[in-house]
Amino acid sequence: ARSMEGQPYGYHNLIFSWIDTIQDNYPPPLDAHVVASVVTVWNHIQPAYAANMWNEALNKRLGTQNLSFPDILVEVEKRGSSFDELLTVPERDDWLYSDGKSTSCVAFILEMYKEAGLFDPIASSIQVTEFTIKDAYMLKFFENNSSRLPKWCNDGDTVNLPFCQIKGKYRMELPKYNSMEPYSHMNERCESLPPKYSRSRNC
Predict the structure, then answer these.
(1) 121: preceding bond cis by omega (within 30 degrees)
(2) 37: which residues sit within 8 A by CB, 6+ positions away?
(3) Do the Cβ atoms of 106 and 133 come closer than 8 Å?
(4) Would you state the pLDDT for residue 99?
(5) How far out from the chain centre does Cα 32 lie?
(6) Rounded-to-integer distance, Cα 173 and Cα 161, Å
(7) For residue 201, is pLDDT > 80?
(8) Which PANTHER family does this entry report, sorted A to Z (predicted)?
(9) Whole-structure pTM value
(10) For 79-158, where are the alpha helices, taking DSSP H only?
(11) Over the stretch 8-43, which tens digit does the pLDDT of each residue have?
């Protein structure tokens, strides 16, 4: 945990972790073509920023280094792939970016779970950088017997929550809390379209 002190927030995770499929993650009218257009414009307006924000992550997905965005598109075509497919390549926990390891708040917590052995024996097939906050609280890692929660837990609330809400004026709602067993390559191929963001059974 201390190795992450002073590291930048995991924006690489946030940008890419929600794109798991070619077309079933983008809220209309957004799609990979719009993303490519935005990145192209960004590269012209702020090339250094775009290189750090987008190009480095795309290079990692290709296994290349320092390719510009136009060169990335050319390389993708050479390999018989597409930009749509490139965006779906899962973020890897061990990728190290030029500004340090990229870890969002939820990935940071799940990385500690992973190091503690909670994902064993499939830990090597889990990339926590692919998880959202919802994915994290859905994991079947938590106490499922509410009678074993501390007595002060949810004290004064008229609803018996299955978890402890320590602070807050409003009651938290965590749909499907503590309901999903970890599985290999978890959350790497999950669709989620608005307005309900429904997923298939194993996601």
Answers:
(1) yes
(2) none
(3) yes
(4) 85
(5) 18
(6) 9
(7) no
(8) OS01G0793500 PROTEIN
(9) 0.85
(10) 83-87, 105-115, 133-138
(11) 788 888 888 889 999 999 998 999 999 999 999 999
**1 confidence band (pLDDT: 50, 70, 90):** low
How far is the CA of 129 from the CAs of 10, 19, 166, 188, 198, in angstroms? 9, 12, 26, 10, 21
Tokens of 40: 């192209």
- pLDDT at position 85: 97
How far CA 99 is from CA of 8, 44, 46, 94, 197, in Å, comes to 7, 21, 17, 14, 32
Quick one: tokens of 135? Answer: 């994915």
Cα 84 to Cα 77, 145, 182, distances in angstroms: 11, 44, 27
CB atoms within 10 A of CB 58: 21
Q: Is the pLDDT of residue 83 over 70?
A: yes
Asked if 142 contacts 163 with a C-beta cutoff of 8 angstroms, the reply is yes
**Token digits of residue 5:** 């002190």
Question: What is residue 103's three-state secondary structure?
Answer: strand
What pLDDT, in 10s, does the model give residues 126-179? 999 999 999 999 999 999 998 898 888 877 788 888 998 888 889 999 999 999
155, exposed or middle or buried, with CB in 10 Å at 0-12, 13-18, 19+? exposed
What HEC string does 144-173 produce? Answer: CCHHHCCCCCCCCCCCCCCCCCCCCCCCCC
Q: Token pair of 111, please? A: 């990385």
Supply 107's token pair. 């990935």
